[in-house]
Amino acid sequence: MADGQAGETIRVQPRESGFGAEVTGVDLSRPLPAAALAAIRDAFARHAVLWFPDQPLSLDELEAFTLQMGPFGDDPFIKPMPGRPNVLELRRAPDEKAPNFGGGWHSDWSFQPAPPSATILRSEVTPPVGGDTLFVDAARAYDDLSPTMKAMLAPLRAIHSAGRPYGANGLFARETEKRTMEIISSPEADKTHPHPLVRTHPVTGRKALFVSPTYTVGVEGLTDMEADAVLGFLYKHLLQETYRLRHTWKPGMVLMWDNRCTMHFAEGGYDGHLRVMHRTTVAGEVPV
Ligand code: SIN
């Protein structure tokens, strides 16, 4: 606990596993006092996914909160909101048939040389059914591997690319159904970038698996069959129920997750209903 604003006290209520926590007793619409910011940073390092109920931030407030966590990240391949280059609107109309955005396991923009440390998502309109966001704890999943598997993975570098979703021939380029969000498919997306397959968190020092079915396209030095076998095992391991967290939204919630030690998945399941979210990212560091 720490003093919030005007005598409020921040409460951090972690889930039993320690992965994910609810944070109350703070008003994110106002500049955060140093103690409140430190408490949020500490909770973020401990729990990796934080949700803040009843925080119906305006877009200006969402941007201001993000900047207290760090400078904006760079969001490619999606047209940002008019006049707000650092805010993406994740909007899906009730009559939309195209698959929902974010519906594959990933860590945001992991194909960048320095992927975003955090993503912040604020709900505006939530559907009455579906629309949950799922997470996996890639640090605990790493911890549970055998010493032999850890030793085998230690020197490996995974190859990341945005090509599958955003490439010139990617999923978005080929889709025929109408989509509200404007996706900018590009040959730029087909570039690849290697990162350590196991990365060390710069704040906690914990190791985590840093691969995802959406953006990891291979492993340096392994044949495609070998990489498929290693990655296939890792995805099966990561996606076990024990590492999962399911976030169910209400309007006016803020959710912040750590891309350095988690993967996430937007579940969908709300055809016929409107869902509107606003998203920013916080710049990150080169993974080591
Ligand atoms: C995403 O950022 O991947 C989308 C998450 C969501 O819409 O729940």
Give me the secondary-structure topology.
Layout: E1 2-3, E2 9-14, E3 21-24, H1 34-47, E4 49-52, H2 59-69, E5 88-92, E6 118-125, E7 133-137, H3 138-143, H4 147-153, E8 157-161, H5 163-166, H6 171-174, E9 192-196, E10 198-200, E11 207-209, E12 216-219, H7 224-238, E13 244-247, E14 254-258, E15 262-266, E16 275-282
Parallel strand pairs: 3-4
Antiparallel strand pairs: 1-2, 2-3, 4-14, 5-16, 6-14, 6-16, 7-13, 7-15, 8-9, 8-12, 10-11
The structure holds succinic acid (SIN).
Going by CATH, the architecture would be 4-Layer Sandwich
The backbone outline, from C-alpha atoms, is: globular
What structural class should be given to the helix and strand makeup?
alpha+beta
Mean pLDDT: 96
Helix content: 10-25%
Report the strand count: 16
Q: Identify every distinct bound molecule in the structure, by name, code or SMILES.
A: succinic acid
CATH homologous superfamily, by name? Clavaminate synthase-like
What is the distance, rounded to the nearest whole angstrom, between the alpha carbons of the first and last residues? Answer: 32 Å
Q: How many individual domains?
A: 1
Main β-sheet, spatial strand arrangement: 1-2-3-4-14-6-16-5
DSSP helix count?
7
Give me the strand/helix succession. Answer: EEEHEHEEEHHEHHEEEEHEEEE
State which percent range the strand residues make up: 25-35%
Rg, alpha carbons: 19 Å
Largest sheet, strands/sense/barrel: 8 strands, mixed
Low-confidence stretches: none
CATH topology term: Double-stranded beta-helix
